[in-house]
Deferrochelatase
Amino acid sequence: MSDSSISESESASLLSKKVSRRDMLKTAGIGGVGVLIGAAGIGGVMSLSTAAAPEENKRGDTVPFYGAHQAGIVTAMQDNLYFASLEITTTDKRELIKLFKDWTVAASNLMKGKPVGDLSSNGFLPPKDTGEAEGLSPANLTITFGVGPSLFVKNGQDRFGLRSKQPKELKDLPKFSFDALDETWCGGDICIQACADDPQVAFHAVRNLVRIARGKLIIHWAQTGFQRTKNAGNVKETPRNLFGFKDGTVNPDSKEDLKQVWVQPGDGPNWLVGGSYMAVRRIQMYIEVWDRTTLKDQEETFGRKRMSGAPLGKEQEFDEPDLEEKDENGKFVIPETAHMRLARGDGTQQLLRRSYSYAGGMDSKTGSIDAGLLFIAFQRTPSKQFIPMQQRLAGLDKLNEYIIHRGSALFACLPGVKKGGYIGETLFN
């Protein structure tokens, strides 16, 4: 249950270009006048009553769309997430290819802070862009596309003549012990992950991409997510989950480690080289129960100190844990059921975690708060990384007393695309 990070040098380079919205307002000389702020999840709004954001700020808040890999995987985590799992309704492969081509143009524009199309001069036609991001900066928006196993074969049918291209690794995740999966939150033919430092920018991206797909796709499930904002704390500090513990301490960040994120030549079909597998788990947290648990039990559940994030028995967050250390009673300092110990295993299975907290109001069945984590992890080989790790956690993890897995999906995130090409081109050609 950890989040993602990139190397400090990459992060510093990206953040040095960042101009906060607060600084933008000061520069514009308008202070707090004409600003409306809403903070209720994805509905939160920050709009200017007059001029759009200066062009120089937009350039500082932009992540490139084109490249060898898709953005939104090793990109520094943004503040907000809008994730959508989609079902294909068309049966025409040509329509599907055209959709991916249209999405390529639209996503490139959206990540530059531009609308998806020119405003129609005919007032009797709907505008091509829905308009709620007008005047906002790109807010480091990234859009990441993935395809699920059901894109290839569904109910035994080869839907688009792609059966032979389905990677062996791309199949529904197994049901693990203690799973209580709800099909409402499982699977999908295609996914869109939109991350941005502004919730309205992320929502606008998914809304317009889905609108472009009208008649070809429908939303199967969707989830908003958040982490602490860059204005609220030190961006170099590991963010915390809703249990109050640091989330994302262990993440691959070196060039060598990132080989465990990207699909390599020889791993499977060549069309996925440069892509990555995305495991998604919607995890509900029983926060009321957790809030009545002693600090000692909480720390032993995670295997880390709450305040510093250090492994038990150590002082600093990034200290190497000693899994053999025992106390005066002969018990392991880091309990055998600790989440950190089980997730670590022998240390060879690495995931790039890019998870976001969510809050969905009240759970109508229990009357408790519906809140938790949309766990997202990228990897090269799910059968050797996420699956064995999750099998260990499902068997012994003490954290299972406080969480339940409600949703599950696996997607193959497509390789990046060069200018002049389109996302998914290697799959469809």
Observations:
- The first helix runs from residue 8 to 16.
- Residues 2-58 have pLDDT under 50 and may be disordered.
